[in-house]
Amino acid sequence: MAEVARVRETGGGGRFASSLITAGSAVLILVVLAALFAPLLSSWGPEQIDPAASLAPPGGAHPLGTDLNGMDVWSRALHAARLDLGIAVAAVAVAVVAGSLVGLVAGYRGGWADDVLMRVLDVFQAFPTFILALAVAALLGGGTANLVAVIALVNAPAYARLVRAEVRSVRELPFVEASRTSGSSSWVVLWRHVLPNSLTPVRVIAPLNCGWAMLTLAGLSFLGLGVPVPTAEWGAMISLGTGDVVAGRWWTSVPPGLFLLICVLGFSLLGEGLQERADSTGR
Amino acid sequence: MRILRFLLTRLLQLVPVLAGVAVLTFLLVRVLPGDPIRTILGPNATEADAAAARARFGLDQPLWRQFLDYLGGLFTGDFGTSIQSGAPVGSEMAVRIGPTMELVVISLAVALVVATVLGIWSARHAGRFGDHTVRVAALIGNSVPEFWLGLVLVLVVYNGLGWAPAPSGRVDPDTELSLLTGADLLDAALTANGPAFVSALEHLMLPVATLVIVIVAPLLRSVRASALEVLGSEAYTAAAAHGLRDRLLLRGYLLRAALVRLPALAALVFGFAIGSTVLVEYVFSWQGFGQWALRGLLYRDYPVVQASVLVIALFYVVVFLIADVVHAILDPRVRI
Amino acid sequence: MPAFSRPDGSGSPALSRRSVLQLGGGVALLFASGCAAGTGTGGSGGSSQGPAASTLRIAVSGYPSSWDQDFVGFDLTALMLHKNVFPYMIDYGVTAVDGGQILDTSAIAPTFAESFEPDADNKVWTLKLRRGVKFAGGNEMTAKDVKWSKDRAFAAQANVAGVYRLIGLTEADQVEVVDDYTVRFRQAFPSALTRQIQAISLYVFDSEEAKRHATADDPWAKEWFAKNAPNGGYFNVEKATQGQEIVLAANPAYPGPDGAKAPRIRLTVVPAAANQRLQLQNGDIDIAFGIGRRDIKDLKTTKGVKVISAPSNSQVTIQMSMTTAPFDDPAVRRALAYAVPYEQIIANVYGGDARPSRSVVPLDMPGYSETGYPYTHDLAKAKQTLADAGKGQVGSELVFQADNEEEQQLAVLVQSEAGKAGIELRLSPLDPATLAGRREKRNIPLQITVGELWVNDVEYMLGTSLTKGANLNYSNYGNPEIEKIFKRSHTVVDEAERAKLWLRVQEILAEDIPWIMICQPNFTLPVREEVAGWVQPMDGLARLRHLNIAT
Description:
The complex is a heterotrimer of chains A (283), B (336) and C (551).
Chain A: H1 2-11, H2 14-36, H3 38-41, H4 73-109, H5 111-126, H6 129-140, H7 144-171, H8 174-181, H9 186-198, H10 200-222, H11 234-245, H12 254-282
Chain B: H1 2-31, H2 47-56, H3 63-75, H4 89-124, H5 129-143, H6 146-160, H7 184-190, H8 194-232, H9 234-241, H10 246-260, H11 262-283, H12 289-298, H13 302-330
Chain C: E1 55-60, H1 76-85, E2 90-97, E3 100-110, E4 113-118, E5 124-129, H2 143-155, H3 159-164, E6 175-179, E7 182-186, H4 194-201, H5 207-213, H6 222-227, E8 235-241, E9 245-250, E10 264-269, H7 273-281, E11 287-288, H8 293-300, E12 305-310, E13 315-320, H9 330-339, H10 342-348, E14 354-355, H11 379-388, E15 394-401, H12 405-420, E16 423-430, H13 432-441, E17 446-451, H14 458-466, H15 480-489, H16 495-512, E18 515-521, E19 523-528, E20 531-532, E21 535-536, E22 548-549
Parallel strand pairs in C: 1-10, 1-11, 3-21, 15-16
Antiparallel strand pairs in C: 2-3, 4-5, 5-7, 6-7, 8-9, 9-10, 12-19, 13-17, 13-18, 14-18, 20-22
């Protein structure tokens, strides 16, 4: 009995959802601030070599020590936020736009166009993510724009599917039906009515996806297919530092790992909160 | 009958997808920069040697011809010959699939159990501190880069505490395990090799823990949400009001309802795990499928890449199909 | 131009740590095949779980890509294994130098063979085999096996055929079977290199076994030998699990001196360097072949572990393309040579375990002279040199192997200093297939190479790396005078005379500067304290037969 009462309360689980959203946003704002003010917060450049210190422990001139190349870990971890956030957000944005377009067309047109597009998406989804990403990275090279393209490519099919499903249900709603019969062109109907309604779930998923995109980027860097050396990027830093962990030199890989974790967690908290809110209002 | 027809339609839909994967992979590997032949020839090789080697692997043929040969091979179960090792790709693959499947399947199973238990517990304590803790912990696990987590686990559990065996391989070679399927745990069980079984279990501990931590969050969320729905339903309220015992409530209502949505999600997670196991394999010297495919890609071993991508895609679509069927059986509301 | 080259192995360990990629090989660099991470040997030691006490446990970074020594690519693990499982008719001796033991390239002695001696003109060499030596399958090792192996090398253009040109062997007919236990090699000219070249080339296959697996399409059984381990060497392969482990057992049929000391050796594939290190520290392995420079320093002070360290002729260089802008201008090459922070690289990348290079010719090679590389780190001179040549800013990519931490670290240091001198470098790590493809096309303006020559001789070096068309000549270097000296050296046997030629070669190279000579890192190999008998190979490829476990 008591349980039932509690469950009802959680209909007002809105409160936890709000705190998740707040916490996630706070974390992300912090990361953005750190990224923006990175040059002010560190006295070394992210790629500046301290010839006197390779693998120096934290303390003194280097608050978090230096890595194998003699570069300041604290400075690199801060500066890396720019690139990681930038690539992840840009990649998800591209994926949302491209995926939504495909989903919109497939869902709205239906028929053979839908069939063909869906099978193409199936192909991309069935393709192992890392191999696809690796192959595209090998093909295009490791530049920033190419990384955005790679990560967008592996994420876009999910959005296409999501939007397609929404479009198919929205399409049958009375007001859409009405504007269609009243003679609006199909693009107007799509743009004005179908698209905005279809994007609701996308808004919930996108933050989660940003976190995931960041992990993909880190994985690519770990495999040596990320940003060019010696650019500061968390995955590349962890990768360079993995060999130090067993030697007890935690400072080369633990800080970038924690930065990455915190940043991804910020997105996860935000996404989880949004999802919970959507669930409770939807119910 | 309807299930059968459903199954048949879905199976037919797989054909174009797999064909698409085959074509895409075939073209993709060939546009990549780099020459697979040069990596196997000695530094001394002349252009004539390279041409001869190319002919040996059929790479001198026009593209359409190569593709037809590849397709023809597939129908007879012939995946071609690895350029790097000269061995048939099929037999190499057979050795590699077992270990990876073992890792992924066990991880997924453990994650499902953990997610179900914690998810239902969390739902029944919804809104309390414990519930929030579980959820946030799962989210944290979901936010950790797996290669980093694996390394930290090795450091703490093997190096620090000494609880796990060295991260080199999957079973202690001194147990003289004979390989049947490549999945060591299964082989040990089949050959009734006790020490090998224990050794394989110990070796599985850390990689499985790594994967479980990384994949449990979405499963947990799904179970918890389903359970919450049930807890709020009238049927459950009524049953609880009639004083049904806890255990019965749990089994009769919560568990079944919570599991209905799980198959589809589990399939998705399975797909993800297969894809990301390559990083975990590296950290634990697992020598599985992911490492093999990756190496194939790096050396542009065309047949290896083609075969591995196709097989992963096959697993992926089949698992989805199974998930749909299971879902249909579990949930009578599903129209098929 | 015939390619003469062959590579050679090399040695530096390094390899990879990080990556998942496990790229494999070494890469080669220079001379060929790469370097592997060290290859080594092992001892046994304190194991925590206990395999038979006498089994040496060795960790390697990757599984060998092929068992066929004739056609293997840049794969140090494979090359090392081949040295131990193929029967070599003659082989290097061992000599003691300050406290350690090294392979003695000047004392090449018969092992499986009874003798290998020239006639009075040094042109015709006679190989006599021992009677009654058997392969593991029971076939006797006779002259027909030697003949078949050499026929195969010539017909199928194996690596050996390339090196044989250096000593005037170009056709199968020059190898004659006299009787069941005698083979004659008729060289086109006498050569100072015969013993050295034959020491790396005179391995044989079991020809009866081979013929059973030959087909019309594949008359030399390449497919079969790629997949199946050879036997009859110092060790037989007792068990090989693809991708995971290889167990070697001492060959009881070995007839010569210095047979394998360890009865069994188990090689386990452990791709991650960090794991190798942990296992070594914990005594779960005896020897680690994939540990990089950054761990070596720590391991020197780790209890239960010792680090074998020895000077080596492995060279780290940056080859500049003489035919690609901006390095087609000698001023730019010189400027870069002044911009490289040599001491800093030795200190930071190699932890001081390296010797500076003062010539293109390796330090311990006969004929070495300090005049060969008169460049030191001097940014002012670098800028001046560029300015004098009328160049403001120049730029280029710097290519190295992906997944090779040592090269990456080096590249970052060079990039940073070169930038200060006005040479902007873009770092471009390449995976093995891309690297091999681009090296083949000779279109890399600037690349890091690491390697060691298999034959310690300048003639060999010119033939493999510094003459037109040579396989390891990634610089596209060509100098008419060097070509002439190289041709002449074929038939010059007198040591003093050769030394004079080499002095001239180094003067020319100092002027032309095709390579930046970074340094010569020492060979380092971490092992458990119980491991004994290590013999330092001059090619970086471990000879496992000398190893055992001290009790």
